[in-house]
Every structure is written in C-alpha cells, then in structure tokens.
Write a structure and sequence with these properties.
There is one protein chain. The chain is of the alpha+beta class. It contains 3 helices and 8 strands. The longest helix is centred in the first third of the chain and has 13 residues. The radius of gyration is 18 Å and the shape is globular.
Length: about 140
C-alpha cells in the first residue's frame, strides 16, 4: 500500500499539469492586419507577469509589443485584425476596451488576461520601451 500511494499521487498530479502550447508563428504571418478602432490606437502600458509591457497600435493595424524586466527586454511586432491582436509571443488574443482599460486575453488559457492603461506620452513605460518605441 505504501508503494501505491506515491504512484497514485504522481499519476493524479500528472493529469493536472499541462504543457504550455507554443504559439504558432505561421498564424501571425498569415493574418492580414486591419485598422483598429480609433480609440485603441496609440500606446498602452501594463504588467505582463514581472514585465512592464507597452503595446503600440497604429492605424495600419501593425504595431509593437515591448516588454522589459531586469535584463530581459524585447520588442516584437503585432497585428490587429477582427478584434484580436496577433503576436508570436502568445499567439492570438481578444482585445476589449472598457473606458480607459484595455484588456488583452490570449486564446491559450495558460496565459491570464492582461490589463493596459492608456499611456500616450509613455510616462509609465519602461525606459527600454520608451527608447525602442520612440524610434518609430
């Protein structure tokens, strides 16, 4: 009986753990960007886990996602289409605006919803992102 308990526990725990699904970069490449609604164009800053992240939506439907944390900083392209943002970082995500709060909810359930606030002047953006996004 003592030997069965660790085996049963490991089987039970294995069923609760899911491996993260890697985003499919081909989805990002296939999406044709659309002009986002005027009210979400511009800069939005919020937290994505330990990262301070800023999203930039342009009229063309293309933009950037910049994230900074300690020595791990990055900028990646985004596309907006059909009420979603697409990136190779987390795949596709629903974008909703409620007053001054932009919510980005990735389709993959291993990621939480992320909240961003309008940051037109990049006041709240990480220094790295201020530099990267100011370059255009």
């Amino acid at each position: 009986m003592k030997k069965l308990f660790p085996i049963a526990l490991s089987v039970l725990l294995a069923g609760c753990i899911t491996s993260p699904k890697l985003p499919d970069a081909s989805l990002y490449l296939e999406v044709e960007p659309e002009s986002p609604p005027a009210e979400i164009r511009g800069y939005w800053t919020g937290a994505m886990g330990p990262y301070i992240s800023t999203i930039q939506f342009s009229e063309s439907g293309r933009g950037k996602l910049c994230s900074a944390y300690a020595h791990g900083s990055s900028v990646t392209g985004i596309k907006y289409a059909g009420g979603k943002v697409y990136t190779v970082f987390f795949g596709a995500a629903d974008v909703t605006l409620n007053q001054n709060l932009l919510t980005v909810k990735p389709d993959d359930e291993i990621y939480p919803a992320y909240e961003f606030f309008s940051d037109t002047e990049l006041v709240e953006a990480a220094d790295y992102c201020k530099e990267q996004l100011a370059e255009g």
